[in-house]
Sequence to fold (698 residues):
Amino acid sequence: MLQHARKALADLLAYDPGALRLVRGVHLMLTVLAAATLGNVIGGYVPGVSGFKLAVMAAASGAHCLIFTPVATRRQEITSIAAMGAILISLFSVGALVGTLAGASISIVLQVLWVGVIALGFSLDGLGGVWQRAGRMISICWLFVFMGSLPVSPGVWLPAMAIVGALTAFTIRICLWRPSTEATYRRVEAANRKVMAAFLKDASQGALSTRQSASDALKDLSDLRAELRTCAQLLGPKPALKGLSPEAATMIELALDVVRDATNQLSNEARAGLSRDAAYLGSVRAVSDKLQSGSASGTRELATDWAKPDPALASGEQFQILRIAQALRRLWLLAEEADLEPLAATLSAEGGRTAWWRRLAWRLALQAGVAAAAGTALGVALDLSHAYWVTLTVIIVLTNSLGTTLQKTVQRTVGTAVGVVIAMAVDPVLAGAPELRLGLVIAAIPAVIVFMDRNYTIASGIISFLVVMGLQTLEGLPLAELWARLYDTLLGAAIGLGAAWLLFPKRSGNSIRVLMDGYLVACANFLKCETHSEQEDRRDLARLRAAATQLIATADAYRAEQAPWSSFSGSGKKLDVLVIVLANYVVLYRQARTAVRRETEQSPTGAAELETLAGRLDDRVQDALSAVLKGRPQEAVPGLAEDWQEAVPELSGAGTRLATDWVAMLYHARKVIRCLEGLREDKLWSGAFERRSVPSSH
Fold:
C-alpha cells in the first residue's frame, strides 16, 4: 500500500513538476472564496441588489483572470492578469450599459448580444497570444453578464465586481507564496543529469545488456525529459539562466543509447579489454562527471586516443569502439550548460506583416456565431431550464480545425458524463451534510487547473462534478433537473461539431500533406547546405525544428479526423516521436558530414577515395528522402555499408577524430533512413505522403 502511494505521488509530481499547477489551482480556489465573500459583503450594503449575485460576479471575474493566465514567471503573470482584468472590466461595463438601456427586453437583448460576443471572441483566435485567450474568456464571461443582469441589471456594480475579482486574483496569485519556476527547473535538471550519468556508467560496463533493462532505463530518461520540457516551457520565452535544454536532453538520450548498443555488440574479449583500459575508464568517468555537474574541470577536449583503430582487432570490433568514442565526444559537448532561450525565429511570421483585421479568424467566427445562435434558439424552443449550458458547450468544443473539434467534443462529452454520474452517486451519501458537499466542491477546484492543459477529459469530469454538486448545494436544485447537464452538453457538442463539419470545415488532410512535404524538403535542404557561421547554422537548425514542430502540432487534428480512437488512446504518439527523432538525426548527420569533409581536407592521404564514398552515402540519404516525397519505394545501395566499414582500418594513421566522425556519419545515415521507413510503414501517416506534385527545393 505504501509503495503504491509513493508511486502515485511520484506520478503526480511528474505530471505537475514542482506542483506549479497545483499551487495555481490553490490560488484559484482562494480567489473564488475571497472574491465571493467580498461580493457578498458588498451586497449587504447595496439595497435592491442580491449579495449572492454580486458574489457570483466577483468570483467569476477573479477565476477567469487566473484560468486564462498560464503558469509563467511572476512578471509575465502580472502582465497577463492585468490584461485579463482590464478586458473583463470593459466587457462588464458594456454589459451594464446595455442592460440599463434594454429595460424590460434585457433578457432577449443580452442573449442576442451573446451570439455576437461569441463571434467576436472567436475571431480573435487568429491574432494568437493574449488575444486568443482573451477571446475565449469574453465568449464565456458574457454568460455571467447575462445571469447577473436578470431580472434587473445591477448597473455599475457589474464592472465594480469585475474590479473586485481582478484585484483579488492579482493579490492572491502574485503576493502569496508560489513555487519558483527556476528552482523547479533546477531540481528536475539535476534529476535528469543524475539518471543520465548512471545510465552512462551502466551502459559502458555492459550492464544494460537485456532488452528489459535497456527499455526500463530509457523509459526513465524519457519520463524525466518530459518533465524537463514542461519546466523549461514554464520558465517563459526568455529565461535568464543556463542549463540543460530539452533539445540537448533528447540528443544526450540518443548518444547514450549509442554507447549502450555499441558496447553490447562488442565481443566479450573486446569489452573486457576496454574495461581494463585506464584511458577509456577515465574518459567515461570524465563524461559522467560532466553530465552530472554540467561543467568540466579545466579540460575543454575529451581524450579518445584509446579508440584509435587497432589492426589487431576485427573491423567490426573497431567500428563499435569508434561508435562509443564518437558518442562520448557528443555527450561531452552536450552536457555543458547552455542558454535556455528558444531558438530565434528564422523567418518573419507572415502574421506580423499582415494587417490585424486580415488575421482575424473570420471562418471560425462564422462557425461560432452560427453554432451559438443555433444553440440559443434550440434552448429557448425546447424550454431547457439551463439552456446556457448548450451555448457554453459550443464555446468549449469549437476550435480552429475539424479534427481538434472532434477530439474536444469527445473529451467534453465523456468527461461530463463521468462527472455527472459521480456527483449523482455521491449525493445520496452526503444528503444530510451540505457543508461537506460544499467542502468537496471547493477542494476539487485545484484539480481542474492541474488537468486542464494535460488531460481535458479529466478536467471536464471535475468541472461537471463541481457544477452539479455546487448548484444542488447552493440553490437546492433537484437531482432530476441536474441530469440536464448531461444532455445539454451532448446537444451543445453536437451543434459545435456540426458547425465545424458543415461550415467551411478546416480539415487537416491537405495541411498535413503540405506540412509533411515541407518538413521532408527542409530535411533535404538542411543536408545540402554546408555549415558556415554559427549564426547560419542555428538559423538552418531553427528552420528544421520549426517545420517539425508545426507538423506535430497539426498531427493531433489529422489523427482525430482519420482515426479518432488513436487520438484518445495515444496509439499514434510514437509517430510524433519519429518526426522529432528524424530532425535530430538529420542534424547529427550533417554535423558528422561537415566534420569528415573538414578532416579529409587536412589529411590528404586517401582523401579522394573517402570523399567518393561519402558522396555515395549522401546520395543514399537524399534518395531516401526523395523516395518518400515522390511516393516510390526506397532503393538500397548494395555494398555501401561494407565499403564504409572496410575503410575504418585505413584511417588508423589519421587519428581518432576522423575515424569517429566517419563511423558517426554512417550510423546517423542509417537512423535517418530507418526513421523514414518507420513513417511510411504506418497506414495513418502513409496517407500524408500521398501527393499530387513534388515541391521544389531551394
Observations:
- The first helix runs from residue 2 to 15.
- Residues 1-179 form one domain.
